[in-house]
Amino acid sequence: MEALKSIIGKVASGATLTREETALAFDSMMSGRATPSQIGGLLMGMRVRGETVEEVTGAASAIRDRMPRVKAACDPIDITGTSDGPMWSVNVSTCASFIVAGAGVPVAKHANRTASSGSGAAEVLARLGVKIDLEPEAVARCVHEAGIGFMFAAPHYPAMQRVGQIRSALGTHTIFNLIGPLSNPTRVKRQIVGVFSREWVQPLAYVLKNLGAESAWVVHGSDGLDQITLTGQTFVAALEAGTVRTFEVTPEEAGFRRCRKEALEGGDADAAALQSMLYGAPSRFRDAALLNAAAALIIAGRASTLQEGVALGKDSLDRGAAAARLKRLITVSNA
């Protein structure tokens, strides 16, 4: 406890923490040794001063060490975001995940439950008949047998519940918004991570490098979305062979026209929209999912350009492979 007090004092003075100090502090939170006042004080101190790459790396490492592992027999990819961007958008990452799985790339998607939106992955999948409260062994079976599995925060690291009420009471972004997408229980080496702020695009790519990722894109849409957007340009930091490079992508590069944000509005109808898309209905929703799936296929080494990735994604949809992954997931998850 004395070490934690010293760390909090250091943050209060405006100093930054080392990776090891941050890991120690967050391990104290996860183990229940830290008091609510200490947790709130540390989170807000870091938030006001601004978190660093080393601090996010240390915090994510501590949470990874505390959570049960999902031992996937393959090398899956994850498509996820911080889940705190604009609430008007459809759940594109969930749709893109089925497209990628249908293209033959296994997906282990990590997501949080949403309290403020009906379009979170948990809500959408539950409406479709997928059993979502699964133990790690069952999730691994889904990835192996269905080619896709979903993991939700609460079941896989109950220690997070200790700080959930404090985060809610603070009512602002904290470092937990950044480390959630980095805490996939399968320890994926390839992923797309959407972030809520452009300022975190490049730093989070370096965090992923520190955590052992091999190939990743960190993305932020110019409209505020934590995904690759159809409404304008998307800011990207790509981790490739140990090097981080930054660039922008546009819908036109993938062969799509730009749209107004109203075309991507989602909510309670997301489950129906996902089913319609999987069974061939054209929409801007489908285009947005294909765009994000194309980037995932680049990261997985299956495509070299966005247009090539879109072509693979369309094939996954048109031959029914993406829809078949959903059907199989429903069956396996309920077995």
Automatic annotation (TrEMBL):
Residues 77-322 form the Glycosyl transferase family domain. Its cofactor is Mg(2+). One of its GO terms (biological process) is L-tryptophan biosynthetic process. Pfam families: Glycos_trans_3N, Glycos_transf_3. Mg(2+) 1 binds at residue 93. InterPro entries: Anthranilate_Pribosyl_Tfrase, Glycosyl_Trfase_fam3, Glycosyl_Trfase_fam3_N_dom, Glycosyl_Trfase_fam3_N_dom_sf, Nuc_phospho_transferase. Signal peptide: none annotated. Pathway: Amino-acid biosynthesis; L-tryptophan biosynthesis; L-tryptophan from chorismate: step 2/5. It catalyses: N-(5-phospho-beta-D-ribosyl)anthranilate + diphosphate = 5-phospho-alpha-D-ribose 1-diphosphate + anthranilate. The keyword Ligase does not apply. Transmembrane segments: none annotated. In the C-terminal section; belongs to the anthranilate phosphoribosyltransferase family. NCBIfam families: trpD (TIGR01245). HAMAP family: TrpD. This is Anthranilate phosphoribosyltransferase.
